[in-house]
Design a protein that fits this description.
Helices cover about 15% and strands about 50% of the residues. The chain is built from 2 helices and 8 strands. It is globular, with a radius of gyration of 17 Å. It starts with a helix and ends with a strand.
Length: about 130
């Protein structure tokens, strides 16, 4: 058994404990529309399992995660890549400038993302700082 398989088993236990369902939304530039002289936007939605936690600030109000200041309402989100649960699902290519995560009807912007990736080949878990 490798350290990667042990880590993956730990993540699966973590995700099976009390996950919620999220929808990962990706927005890409589509075809050029001659009638409007604009490019269309193509939205792709991918269901995923996640764990959502509150981020808390220090009592003096000064706190940060990954070098980004925390403001009230920010969330810590762990997303299990859909291609790990279903090998036929495409891997997520995260774009923090345009992608969104929808959880319980609330749409969050991705402020910061880190991936747990022991081999450097594919992420086993994404940790994101989300903001409304």
């Amino acid at each position: 058994m490798s350290a990667e398989s042990d880590f993956q088993r730990m993540i699966l236990d973590f995700m099976n404990d009390d996950p919620c369902t999220a929808t990962y939304q990706q927005f890409k530039q589509g075809a050029y529309d001659v009638a409007t002289s604009k490019y269309t936007t193509v939205k792709t939605e991918t269901p995923c399992k996640c764990i959502l936690l509150d981020l808390t600030r220090n009592s003096n109000g000064l706190s940060s995660v990954y070098g980004t200041n925390i403001i009230m309402g920010d969330k810590d989100c762990y997303i299990y890549p859909p291609n790990k649960a279903d090998p036929l699902a495409p891997p997520l290519v995260i774009d923090t400038t345009s992608d969104r995560v929808v959880i319980a009807g609330i749409t969050y912007k991705i402020e910061v993302v880190k991936s747990a990736d022991p081999t450097g080949a594919n992420a086993l878990l994404y940790q994101m700082m989300l903001r409304r």
